[in-house]
């Protein structure tokens, strides 16, 4: 129905671009606190957290991929009326899908606000002590806005280009800190009771949120690209990075000390000694590069939110540009909502929980509805029609 | 045309953002503290006296060409008091023209007096301050901590640089442990470890490394002399430690000096044979090294092979004795697990040992043995 909007963008994302999109969105501000959050329940065994968490993420992403296969070339905004009602009744479908789309878009909106707040917070507390928090947040928003001025294939290219900047700093820090590692910190392997193990695993899934943007972007995947594979690698790369950083955190600090530091990954950077003393105070350099990783998280979420709105109202790029500008204002206030650092972490963990429910909940409900309406098996027919 | 105007507007807006940042501060606009010393204030026992060393950039840059002044000129030493460390810091700021910058602090000297009372209160400020690097070296100073900053070493323009080089080169040679603030933090929050720090003494012109200070939960409980520290370094960190001077048997005043080159150490935890339950720790320490000095001429009587064996046995005996003394001291006198033994026990014997014992108390009674294997490789340039 809205083919005129992104017509030229359709079917242009390569598999690699999809992987980059997923990885860069997942790797963001969460990494800065991950070693602490991962060890809070599971103590020494905290490095299992990302691995456990990835299972939920694989499952959710697999369902999202299947939904996208069921409705090829359509975003969640486009196919949800078809899920909730028959194509002859688009108005009913739209009304029924409204709450889901609303929750989905609001979540993306809030996540971009809180991510930029956390980033602003870490910059203000550790590097730029005199710079107002608002300035850092606004600068980040303007960057995100700049991305929103463009069509959707630009997002894919930006993510592809920034992808190395997402990976390199974390990998460098993780490997550089292994020279200080005390491996006995990792043992005993299992000592917590089953209940905290479960809680830890649940909390683990929080750190994986962001791949829900693929509910939109899979629609633009090249027909020949393998979405399952792209998704799998996206999550896999993230899992490896997460695990490495948690292992580095545990082996260098030990879990007790990790619980005491606000930004464990940043402390890890501070403990890292670059031979030759070329770079003292590496954390400034780290955060400077890290901007790229945070940018991809915030801008991707915000872009997806804006693009979702645009599709929902069936408008064009002009609407997108104007809406993106005006919606920055409430976004700014949401970002400044939490009053102190404790509240920020509380909100961020609530968002994690929300993300988990949303990522697994929405695809699951959609599939249930499809099956209940007896439309679940259309996929095979359409595939035949395609091929 | 409209597009061109838009471009111009955009450029104007963008240039507004290029005005620089709030935190821009040139190098000469900072008062960079290189070292901090913390003492008890003599006038009021409850207060701390904080002494800082601030380099004077102009003096350092100028002196190379002009033959240099005495090195007292290159740094400014200031001393303030305060109820807490941050109180003292703000008092210091009142006396400075530039803003204090702690990001280049490399040495934190704490007097033994304060260390023995516990340094938890001091460290909290350093934990919170983002400028403080975890790689800086806390050092326990015998006597007044400020004396460490006031030395005039003459070999280096800035006293702190002299101290830094001393520690850094000691580390490279494997005779001084690399104990950073980060290590101290990690060890104090870890239930299975106890921290240790370098222990020095400063006189008017000199500073001397005197071994290590042993802590038990933030509180200094004692120290180890260099010989014992080297035993510790060998079994704990596989560092080589310093030369070993052994008195030759059946001689009046003759010695052999052994220089360790490579050290490998393994900690083995095995069930006690004597008793039904319980564990014992055995450090297997293999040292390869050379003889660098043998003061008695014509000491060797038998075949060279036999001589090597004899010497190895002699050195082994001496080193095991030293390690033994060190362990007894650490266990019985200080009762502080600086061996990282608890870490290994918690990791590998969690269910059968760790949860049944209170390690902080029971470390005292844990059997520890050290077995040295000496491999004498060379005799230097001398063949006899």
UniProtKB/TrEMBL annotation, chain A:
InterPro entries: Spore_GerAB. It is a multi-pass membrane protein. It comes from Brevibacillus invocatus. The keyword Transmembrane applies. The keyword DNA-binding does not apply. One of its GO terms (cellular component) is membrane. Keywords: Germination, Membrane, Transmembrane, Transmembrane helix, Transport. The chain crosses the membrane at residues 20-39, 45-64, 95-115, 127-149, 161-181, 201-220, 232-255, 285-306, 318-338, 350-372. GO terms for biological process: spore germination. This is Spore gernimation protein. NCBIfam families: 2A0309. It holds the Pfam family Spore_permease.
UniProtKB/TrEMBL annotation, chain B:
Pfam families: Spore_GerAC, Spore_GerAC_N. PROSITE patterns: PROKAR_LIPOPROTEIN. It is found in: Membrane. Residues 210-380 form the Spore germination GerAC-like C-terminal domain. It is a lipid-anchor. Keywords: Germination, Lipoprotein, Membrane, Palmitate, Signal. Residues 23-201 form the Spore germination protein N-terminal domain. GO terms for biological process: spore germination. InterPro entries: GerAC_N, Spore_GerAC-like, Spore_GerAC-like_C, Spore_GerAC_C_sf. Belongs to the GerABKC lipoprotein family. This is Ger(X)C family spore germination protein. It comes from Brevibacillus invocatus. The lineage of its organism: Bacteria, Bacillati, Bacillota, Bacilli, Bacillales.
